[in-house]
Amino acid sequence: MPITNKSGLKIIALDVKDVRFPTSLGGHGSDALHTDPNYSCAYVTLTTEDRRYGYGLTFTCGRGTEVVVLAIRSFKRFVLGMNAADIFADFASFWKTITNDSQMRWIGPECGVAHLAAAAILNALWDLWARIENKPLWRLLVDMEPQELVSTIDFRYISEVITRDEAIRILKERKSGQGARLKYLSENGYPAYTTQVGWMGYSDETVSHLCKKYLNLGFTHFKVKVGVNVLDDIRRCSVVRNCIGDGKVLMVDANQAWDVNEAIDWMKKLAHLKPLWIEEPTSPYDVLGHTAISNALKPYGIGVAGGEMCANRVLFKQFLQSGGLQFCQIDAARVGSINEILAIYLMADKLNVKVCPHAGGVGLCEMVQHLQMWDYVSLSASMDGRFIEYVDQQHEHFSDPCIVENARYIAPKLRGYSTQFLPEVLDKFTYPTGSEWQRMFEDATFPEPDEAELLNV
Ligand SMILES: C[C@H](O)[C@@H](O)[C@@H](O)[C@H](O)C(=O)O
Ligand SMILES: [Mg+2]
Fold first, then answer.
1. Whose CB has fewer CB within 10 Å in the chain, the N or C terminal residue?
2. Residue of 31, 252, 278, 362 to mutate, ligand 1, most atoms within 8 A of C-beta
3. Start-end ranges of CATH 3.20.20.120 in the chain?
4. ipTM score of complex
5. Span 11-171+421-456: which CATH code?
């Protein structure tokens, strides 16, 4: 239902913060290309005239967050003074304004820093909408009539794969059995897999210890980083396979380390360890390369996964159309928020590709759980072969953290998109002024930032 009482919903402030956590110290989150990530985000707070708030973020790896923060400041003009109800009543038009402004689009379009910045603001708007409706975000999406939900999507560039009318028809058809699915979800949650066992910077001892820990927590699917040295990869993946046994599932993630032929050759050497998928084998822009890898690895029973750095719905469209991805990993902050993510889910559904969202970053688990739960109740109607990534870091910093029990995400109950930080977290981890950062500069754990980074302060 569109919001009828607009009073007080004028957006009067947009605050943005550079928030960073020192995860590189323990190698947490490290992979073949991101060897020392400090899990970070550009964190947006929107305020309305009647003091409602919307919180949204986009994930980053440390340096570079200052650039996203500046881009978000440049986007302020599109939001300030707008009534949130007017935005939601014609969200696709607002989406076009912020992602395709005549001057700003030159620094995109619909990709890179510009799109990350737009995503943070759009995520905050979706959070605000769910808070106004007093529902968790997934439930807001489930309760929206298909016409209203689809009205938030910009179908430009994808209409040869899916049209507005087709999307509405599909969503209407899938209403059948929704009540039973809601019940199943609330009683059973949604399956998760863990990436926490095999970050690139972890020793074999740590990997084996963590495999046991996550086995005991009920996990059946384990993801490991690969891509620096093939002999190391065989050894590390064997450690995992030995710990988890043949009955559990191993996935590997190269984070774009290889050329196309290199990816094929490397994966043939890991094939005896029976990985379910190789994630991001090569450049996230190489659609045909992914297709070649998919075709070459099919006889080995290895699928290709990807999407965490897929810039927008157009690239997703090509990956899905060309058979380049067997597992579609939408990311809640890389593309233009839920407006664009819905389009990707709809295309994946139409082209029969399973969505297993990416969540290796701050706040991503919190967000993607909502999307995948909506998908289960309203679109795919299936959890079969689908998993939400679970990265066991930084959840304690959120006021409504995701909850994973017995390797299943429990459906969020509180209103919003689950990405509000606890106030003390901002005092401690805002970069570079937060008390934790000041302490780490003082004891030389990290060098003080240079002048360019101080532009944000
Ligand atoms: C730098 C990050 O931790 C990535 O390694 C992470 O997002 C990863 O690719 C994943 O799939 O979780
Ligand atoms: Mg990955």
1. N
2. 31
3. 173-409
4. 0.99
5. 3.30.390.10
